[in-house]
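Subject: Sanity check before I submit

Could someone independently write out the structure tokens for this chain? I want to compare against mine line by line before I put it in a report. The sequence has 432 residues.
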Amino acid sequence: MKVSFITLGCKVNIYESNAIKEELTKRGHVVTNELEESDCYIINTCSVTNMADAKSRKMIRKCIKENPNAIICAIGCYAQTNPEVKEIDGIDIILGNGNKGKLVDMIEEIAKSPKKEKKIDIIDILEMHEYEPLGVTTYDHTRAFVKIEDGCENFCTYCIIPYARGPVRCKKQDDVINELINITNKGYKEVVLAGIHTGRYNDNGTNLSGLVKRIITEVPKLKRLRLSSIEINEIDDDFISLMKQHDILANHLHLPLQSGSDLVLSKMERKYDVKFYVDKINKIREARPDIAISTDIIVGFPYETEKEFMETYNLAKDLKLTKLHVFPYSVRRGTKAAGFPQVDEKIKKDRAARLIALSKELEDSYANNYIGQELDMIIEQKNGNYMVGHTSNFLQVLLPYDAKLIKKEAKIKVIKVENSLIYGQLLEIYEN
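---
Independent answer below. Compare away.
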């Protein structure tokens, strides 16, 4: 059977799609990421925003319309949280989160049946307390992702994800270590630890800092370790100490801010205030003065006036954050903030544009600091006439293309920043 995959959303979804692909391949099926003629289509959906919902619906309907005889599978967060998905004609399998390991069996069962009958398996995710042991051994890119945690219990007033992913569940630390050893034995040099709420990792008293310490000690072939995202209040002193001691930890953190206004943060029911965020950033920079810090910001959240917006704008600018991922507030049915007084859409759009422009300024300013400096990078893939990779501090650098250097670790010199693109000169290839 030929199976096409469409994966939307976060790194956890990417990881889970890869696990399903591996199982399909083991059973002799042919897997593709292209929307080409196939016997089965798996749409791993996202529901983090209204736009994500709309994109999920669009991809489901596109596959149904263009491939009426194929097996159509809608899985993941949109399938979990939106009952109307059951009413879309043409879907054969609807599978939520927490039980994606069942999918291949369900597909094969339908394929053997003379008459396709719709299969729906949506568990009560809020009652899910066991970590689903999906595993991955191969990756599409040079940078590998390892899922270590699932679920979120923050229940921020704007967010549907706790209802899509359920409570926090964590992979056994020994399983994480073994997966990393297998990955690095296959030549992967960089690994990203991913989760829905990564900072809440805990396995029998070993928290995220403890897990990272074990990885540094027990996975000798690993060259670089990243975190996909972590809440500012979950960066502890032990983790900062590890950053100070070990260059293997990437010189970059993604620390969601969401708002630079204490009023808005309180309405969001975030677990920190502005002072806490600033103090922790300063503490991190004492350990890593040149660290890149990116963030998420929601604009136009209920109760955000121009005053609160400018508090956010000025905070991001004053902190010299290196990249802003900007999201206009999206009403999510079933969340507390859906009942709050809403900000006009035109105002949201204007504020988002101003923050995006600021982000470009901040990115260029940070990159320009490195002109003439030598950095280590991992070369990842071809990009036009160049090859591209990332440095430890997540600068994406373009080098003249040489096919035999893909996936190599290199020393480079940053030579210029032009139109927000960073160009480098290759100095040395590390052979180890």
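---
OP: Matches mine. For the report I'm noting this point. Residues 107 and 113 are 10 Å apart (CA to CA).
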